[in-house]
Amino acid sequence: SFAKENDRRINVAIVPNSFEILKEKVPRGLPLVDEKKEIDKFYKDLEAFENVKTVDLYPKLLETSGEGKQVYYRTDHHWTTAAAYEGYKVICREMGIAPSSFETVKKGSIRDFYGTYYAKYKGIFIKADTIEYYDIPVDSYLINEKDSFDSLYDEDKAKIYDKYAFFLRGNYGLAVIKGKGQKRGRDLIVIKDSYGNCLIPFLTMDYDSITVLDLRYYGGSVKKLLDEKKDQDILLLYNFAHLNEDNNFYKLIK
Question: Structure pTM?
Answer without folding.
Answer: 0.95
